[in-house]
Amino acid sequence: xxxxxxxxxxxxxxxxxxxxxxxxxxxxxxxxxxxxxxxxxxxxxxxxxxxxxxxxxxxxxxxxxxxxxxxxxxxxxxxxxxxxxxxxxxxxxxxxxxxxxxxxxxxxxxxxxxxxxxxxxxxxxxxxxxxxxxxxxxxxxxxxxxxxxxxxxxxxxxxxxxxxxxxxxxxxxxxxxxxxxxxxxxxxxxxxxxxxxxxxxxxxxxxxxxxx
Length: 212
What we know:
Elements: E1 23-24, E2 27-28, H1 30-40, H2 52-74, H3 91-108, H4 135-155, H5 158-162, E3 164-166, E4 174-176, H6 177-203, H7 207-211
Antiparallel strand pairs: 1-2, 3-4
Helix pairs in contact: 2-4, 2-6, 3-4, 3-6
């Protein structure tokens, strides 16, 4: 865009760092955005950790951040976790998607499990409309899959992290175990940002109207 007047623009995208990035008046602003997000979400900066110890710490950070978000959602009025803001996933559906992301990138991508082993409450991008599920069941599914990641990281070695796997979405492409774990961490942080943004909207004076 050239010679435009920009006022009140709100860009919400997790891919600002892709390619040449975002430039405003010739300045690459993506590093500033990333630094601010890292400040707002302690532990996010470690999402691309390389070592087993670093990955364990990175997972602990995002897991605790999600625990705090779940505690926040728990005190909202009944049904809040099923509200869709601007027709995006509800809080409950977001948790279900992270269950699916773990099944895809750890279960299938790293461990070689089949789709028959996927959790039935998992929600993928291509699953279309989804009926609300019992929230206690969603929390149980989330706890099961976070434990799955934690247990894997507890014993993983540098050698295993370097091992090659097939991209679960594009089997012709190679991934390392490490890069598969990076996807899970990236998904967890980005969807946490979305979820907290929507909780803010739900709690705002006009949030209920937007979400219903």
